[in-house]
Design a protein that fits this description.
Layout lengths: L14 E2 L2 E4 L2 E2 H8 L3 E5 H15 L6 E6 L6 H9 L3 E4 L2 H10 L6 E3 L6 H10 L3 E4 L2 H14 L3 E6 L25 H13 L3 E7 L10 H21 L5 E3 L16 H12 L5 E4 L3 H4 L3 E13 L2 E6 L8 H4 L6 E3 L5 E10 L8 E11 L4 E4 L20 E6 L2 E6 L4 H4 L7
Length: about 425
């Protein structure tokens, strides 16, 4: 099963009259109103992507939970929209639990992943009544059992299985191979389920895998699913526990400047065939697939510099706003917001103002050379953009605008210099 391309019903951020728009709002107008750098999110596009996944996987098992991966973009306005649309939340920290509950996700639709959960986070999750902890080691299972005993509550758990599937993606986002820090091998998973069965405060809820991010092919998912289902069969036959759900994880690839996206409908059909008759609910954990191309970063050109045979377009956004290009080698399309005001096309590097040679948004791109003051749009920036932004070089983080139903709302104000020293003492 190979890579496919889904045709969106409505392309995100179309160009109308030479100007990029988000819904009925021109990006240059939003930049004038709220300043730059500026994140802009198309909520209607994000909800459309949620419906796409709900339709692609709904026929697979008797029940489906699309658990949004909060780490992709934890903006509360987006979280509330997903919660109201029936999604769940995949969280990896106590802070994400706090945000998910504050946004209105029912605790029964929240699953807690991650290799380093603290006992304090486990207590918070148990008290909230989340759906399950996705346990990634024997020591974590022991800690969860202790916390559950102390609170006098039952802890629902799913073991994260490492299926030893090497995904064709960046080395930092491959999470399902044997040398990764995530999950446990199948045989160890069976032993952990035995411990769950023997403990009065633990309950086996499901089984979990997650093999990586930005995957454009379905075959790795199916190999991982086969391993997970074999574990579920062994748990039933050898341990005597019938698990309730199988969690396939997320990482569904989106179209970007490199290639097209994963055909989730084709994947859904294959998953349905494997789950048929097993009585397992299905959980998927998309993040980037829902919000990646629903967000852009708008940045203003400061200078155009020619040096050493290269042309540098220096912008007011850089690695402090979007670290994916320098950290993951992420390739984001970059286009002018307005078609006028640009010179001839050249091969340029789009770089930021941060005092690092690794501070860039794009390298060796053929672009119309912009004039200082022009606006550029960095596409597919709705996931792992603002959420990974930093205050390095003492730079305030940017504002965020959400466009939904024709209305543009400032959902996070731009940080001020005073925010940089909030919480510090200097006496």
């Amino acid at each position: 099963m190979g890579q496919g391309v889904l045709t969106p019903t409505r392309p995100p951020f179309p160009r109308v009259g030479g100007v990029l728009r988000c819904g009925s709002h021109a990006l240059d107008d939003l930049a004038e109103r709220h300043g730059t750098p500026l994140y802009v999110y198309d909520a209607d596009r994000a909800l459309e992507r949620l419906r796409t996944l709900q339709e692609a996987f709904a026929s697979s098992p008797r029940d489906l939970l699309v658990a949004y991966s909060v780490k992709a973009n934890p903006n509360l306005a987006l979280l509330r929209l997903f919660a109201r649309a029936g999604a769940g939340a995949d969280i990896v920290s106590g802070g994400e639990l706090y945000c998910a509950l504050h946004a209105g996700f029912p605790p029964g639709r929240i699953v807690f992943a991650g290799v380093g959960k603290t006992t304090a986070e486990m207590r918070d999750g148990l008290r909230a009544g989340i759906r399950a902890f996705h346990v990634e080691s024997a020591q974590e299972l022991e800690a969860c059992a202790r916390v559950a005993t102390q609170l006098g509550r039952e802890a629902p758990v799913a073991i994260r299985v490492n299926p030893d599937v090497r995904s064709p993606t960046h080395e930092f986002t491959r999470t399902g191979h044997a040398a990764a820090k995530f999950g446990v091998p199948p045989d160890e998973a069976i032993e952990l389920y035995r411990r769950v069965a023997e403990h009065p405060r633990l309950r086996a809820a499901g089984v979990d895998v997650h093999i990586g991010s930005q995957l454009r092919e379905g075959d790795p998912y199916l190999r991982a699913l086969d391993v997970m289902l074999e574990v579920a069969d062994r748990v039933r036959n050898e341990v005597g526990i019938a698990l309730r759900y199988a969690d396939l994880g997320g990482g569904f690839g989106i179209a970007d400047a490199e290639a097209g996206e994963l055909d989730v409908r084709a994947l859904g059909r294959e998953v349905a065939a494997r789950l048929r008759g097993r009585g397992l609910e299905l959980i998927v954990e998309p993040g980037r697939f829902l919000v990646g191309d629903a967000g852009v970063l708008v940045t203003r050109v400061l200078y155009v510099k020619r040096s050493g045979g290269k042309t540098f377009v220096v912008t007011d956004a850089g690695m402090t706003e979007l670290i994916r290009p320098s950290h993951y080698g992420g390739v984001h399309a970059v286009t002018p917001v307005c078609e006028d005001g640009h010179g001839d096309e050249e091969i340029v590097d789009v770089v930021g103002p941060v005092c690092e040679q690794g501070d860039f948004l794009a390298r060796d791109r053929l672009l119309p050379v912009p004039s200082p003051g022009a606006l550029l749009c960095v596409h597919q920036a709705g996931a792992y953009g603002f959420t990974m932004a930093s205050n390095y070089n003492s730079r305030p983080r940017p504002a965020e605008v959400l466009v939904h139903g024709g209305r543009a709302t400032l959902v996070r104000r731009r940080e001020r210099y005073s925010d940089l020293i909030r919480g510090q003492r200097h006496d």
